[in-house]
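User: My instructor asked us to take a sequence, write out its structure as tokens, and then describe one feature of it. I'm not sure where to start. Here is the sequence I was given:
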Amino acid sequence: KLDVELHLGSAVTAEMVLAQRAETVVIATGAQTGPGLLPIAGHDLPHVIDVRRILRGERITGQRVVVIDETDGHGVLSVAELLATEGCSVEIVTEDWYVGRDLVATHDIVGWMQRVLAYGVAMTTHTSVVRIEPGQVIVTDCFAVGERAIPADMVVLGTYERPAQELYYALKGRVSRLYRAGDCISPRHTEHAT
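Assistant: Let's start with the prediction itself. The structure tokens for your sequence are:
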């Protein structure tokens, strides 16, 4: 209605923005996946995939899936449920006291728990991931000494995301009024946005 010009499916560069000679630029480039709050050794192995790739439709191979959940967010837990409904044996590993903390605030926890427990999803709490190796994830309970291995054909990273700020910093000092908005400032969850 306001005759706003939209360009879809294009990667935006600083040069493209500068060529527009805009007086004001708002950067809302979102967030990108990261290797973990503290990068997890083995996060770059071929059998490791991040939540965003699965949510975009990419499918995994293998039966035994370990979901590493740093965020307790809806996306991570939705992926765990999706993989369970597709016939995977899913185990969620979190440092939290229970799986699904963020689902409490939105009142989604009861329904989600009922659905995933019916599929046999295992939930391993108060447990840290030490490293990812071919065919297994090495973990340690936060309250016990020693490590143990969880068998894994695939590992899904539900880790904290990083702000996608590259375009903002490439334009900083080159545009008179430059602003950031949304997850490119600080990645947050759905409930923060709503």
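For the description part of your assignment, you could build on this observation: The chain has seven helices and twelve strands. Try explaining in your own words what that tells you about the chain.
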